[in-house]
Structures are given as C-alpha cells and as structure tokens.
Amino acid sequence: MKKLISLIVIIALLAVPARAMEEFDENEWSAVEALTAVEDIPLKVPSAILMEKETGEILYELNSRERLAPASVTKVMTMLLIVEAIESGKLNLDDIVTATAEATEKGGSQIYLKEGEQMTVDVLLKCIAVASANDAAAALAEHIAGSEAAFVKMMNERAAQLGMKDTVFSNCTGLPTEGEHLTTAYDVAIMSRELIRHELVKNYTKIWMDSIRGGEFGISNTNKLVRFYQGATGLKTGFTHEAGYCVAATAERDGVEFIAVVMHGESSDARFESAKILLNHAFANYTLVSALPDEVLPPVAVALGEQGFVQPVPAQSPKMLMDKSEAAGVTKTVELLGEVQAPVAQGQELGRLVLSAADGAELSSVPLVADCAVEKLSWWHIFAKYLGIITMS
Questions:
Q1: Where are the alpha helices (DSSP H) in 105-172?
Q2: How far apart are CA 389 and CA 46, in angstroms?
Q3: What is the pLDDT of residues 170-207, one digit of tens each?
Q4: Count of structural domains, the chain
Q5: Residue 305 belongs to what domain range?
Q6: Are 92 and 140 within one domain?
Q7: What pLDDT sits at residue 328?
Q8: Predicted structure pTM score
Q9: Given a cut of 50, is residue 311 above it in pLDDT?
C-alpha cells in the first residue's frame, strides 16, 4: 500500500501542470522585470520579506514582523541544527538512527517509519528537506538531543543567538501544538540565511525526486520551485490549516543568492507565485559589487608602536548589494590615514573605501580598519630605541 501511495503521488506531480509548478511566460517575465520600486510589487499574501544572502540587506517587507504560525517552515531551524552538528563532527552522515515509537507517531507528512526501523542521518536529512517528513525530523531530533523536548530547547537557544526575537518553537516539525509556536517572516529569513551558508544542505534541498528503502519508497520535493524556477536552491515549504501556505524560497544566479519568505498564503499557487515575483524583482534589479579595493591596500605606519605598521582591511562583507543601473559605472577610491599613534585597537578605523557612480556621486563607503591590535612601546623601549638611533648615527 505504501508503495502504491508513493507511486500515485509521483505520477500526479508529473501529470498535473499546476500553475504553481509552471515558469512565467515571456509577458509575465517582462512585467516583473519592469518593477523597479518595491511599492510596485503586487503580492496577495499577508506577510512576506525579500533578503539578500551575502549582506543580509532587506529589499522588501510586508508585515514581516507579524508573529504567525510557520507550519513546516519550522524545519529550517531543525535542518540548521542537524547540519551544524554534522559540520562540527558531532554527527556523521553515515551514522545509524533508530526510530522510536514517539517519532513514528508524528503524522502529517511522513515516510512512515516503523518503530525500530534504522536509517542513516544522510537519508533522514534528505527526507526532511525533500518530503518534509515529520517522523524523520523527530527521529533525528531525538538522536541528537536525546528527546524532542531537549532538541526544541536547542532550537530556541539557537534562535536567540541569531537575534530571532519574535520566535518561539514548541516542536521540531511545525505540526499544530497546544504550546506557543510562532515566528515572523523576518525571523524565517534570518534562519534561512544562516542555513544556506552551509552548502551541504543544498545537496538535499535541490533534489526534485528521489527514493529511499532501496528504491521502494519514492519522495518528491514539496517545493515546486526547485524544478520550475531557474537557480532555485531550496528551501522549505509549510502548510497547516492554521498557518496557511508558507515558503522560504532561495535561489542563486550569477553569484547572488536571494531569500524570499511568504507566510500564510491562501493557496499553494499564491505562495509560489509571490515567491517568484519577489525573486524575479531581486534578480532583475540588484547585483553584488566587490567592496574590496582594486589594488592591495598599503600598510599604515604606527608611531611609537611595538610594530611599525598595521594592515587595513574592509570592516564588513567584501561584497555590497547595489542597483544594477548603478553598478556598471562604479569607481573605487581609497582614503587612508598616513600614520596613526599607538596604541591601535583591532578594528580601529584607518580610512575608507569610497564607491562612486559614473557621475562622481558617492554611493557608499566601506570603513577600512586595523586587522590587529598594536600596543604602544613602553617608556623603556622608547628610550632604548632612541639610544639605538643615537648610537647608529
């Protein structure tokens, strides 16, 4: 019966050309690319946000701080903790996980784990990312933390570390619960940005269809953008009657990756169309420009320091998000102090890199700061140095 259900689902996904699973036609693309102001973006959802990954810059917001139920978008945090455990060495992809009775009873989207059934971390993570399997999420949560409750505590602690001030998790799946389980589009974008910093997760979130149990059970991605949107990298969908249709959608083109979060859409079509509109607006209008100088920065002299020079470096991300219309003619000018007095603190500003438009107008500037601290010479060292200079002369 499970094999039959799996086969029917896959055939249905391939055969039904739902609007949410189609690319925009040429007219739709032209209309979206013509949108140059955020107020022109026509979304029919109650809450959304658009963010660029590298800089974290927000390009569009619609009630993005409203606290709402996230459904399975919750699993963005679940996957983040799993991936972090793998990359820290606490968990291995080939580790064997044994399903408990509690994990098998989750319901909702699932791979129908049986109590005592064993699967690798690799397979279970794939099932979470692709099929949004609640039983797989619970099994991994218990394996990592000992219990789902302990894992949820880790989720809330990680959310606090990331500055997700309006988020409270009460489970690792997003299933309806009696406890408070709320977040915001803004907080979802924050944790999504953190997750896609880990390229490992994209090995799973970009999968369209696959199978487990030796090919006996097929799984297909709940995020239809993965197949039907150019450059899609993930990330996670969600649906419950309380939460409506949600999605954290990520896509990358030409080295720029954007995050579009849509909350509480009235239909699956609404969430995917809204995400595509946001992503298309981003790709049509923005690009990343290197915030590094075109030449190697010269060191800055340090007067009376334990070392004679300190190296200036950019204080922020080496890339800057800019409007495409401005990026083409950008020029860079380095402004540096000739000398600084010791002591010098690490991160102390030594100058700035100015980015200007073709007409000379300043677009932005990046602080250039000391890459390390330089202590001041003691009076004894100053005196000894002075004596040395006298002797040498």
A1: 121-131, 134-145, 148-161
A2: 73
A3: 999 999 998 899 999 999 999 999 999 999 999 999 99
A4: 2
A5: 300-392
A6: yes
A7: 81
A8: 0.82
A9: yes
